[in-house]
Design goal:
Keywords: Hydrolase. Belongs to the HAM1 NTPase family. It comes from Haloferax profundi. This protein is of the alpha/beta class. The chain has one domain: Maf protein. It is built from eight helices and seven strands. The chain has a seven-stranded mixed sheet, sandwiched between helices. The longest helix is centred in the N-terminal third of the chain and has 16 residues. The radius of gyration is 19 Å and the shape is globular. 34% of the residues are buried. The protein binds inosine 5'-triphosphate.
Amino acid sequence: MLRYVTTNEGKVREALDYLDDDVTQLDFDYTEVQASELGPIAAHGAREAYRYAGEPVLVDDAGLFIDGFEGFPGPYSAYVEDTLGVETVYRLAAAELDEPRRASFRCILAYCDGDPFEASPDPIDRDDRTVAAAHGAEQDAEETEALPVKLFEGVVNGRIIPPRGDGGFGYDPIFEHDGKTFAEMTASEKNGISHRGRALAKFATWYAER
Ligand SMILES: O=P(O)(O)OP(=O)(O)OP(=O)(O)OC[C@H]1O[C@@H](n2cnc3c(O)ncnc32)[C@H](O)[C@@H]1O
């Protein structure tokens, strides 16, 4: 059984289109480490979620990266949505940036099932590390960081525009791609081109072969 780790219902709805019925949501709020990119955040989350669940997990970390703001809000997208709100992000972009106010949505999926993906690490190294590690929490943390994680990335380019549409979630109403905002698209239209859809398609192909 694969657990799709997120507290966000919108992500789950989209992900289930790409994944089999034996995938269920794990509503687990993993620690989001501070980083300027999504990869390390998702990888850390997948390791922590796997330690928690004891089953294969897929973590989805995503964000809106505005070019003229050097990628802001990026990894802080959820925090900025909760504090400023999506409309304020649009107003800031409109006040500060010239058209076309380019931006991208990015999604990283991090998969962890406790098994290595390529050649297994030298067992002697592994034993050494275990012996050298301190007891208790420190040892747990070290073992967690040693868990192998596989990453899948999806990116879609667009621009920031005044909010339009009622569909989707999060920043969808202010992100336009090919003349439509993500909030004006049907779920399958969005999935067909979105950052999450692209990452999920890569993951699904790899997972089917695993
Ligand atoms: O961490 P989890 O529990 O998965 O849920 P979250 O909503 O906090 O997820 P993130 O940390 O990945 O934050 C992503 C932010 O970017 C937004 N976001 C992610 N994917 C999006 C999408 O497809 N369309 C619009 N906004 C999106 C989302 O609303 C959040 O504000």
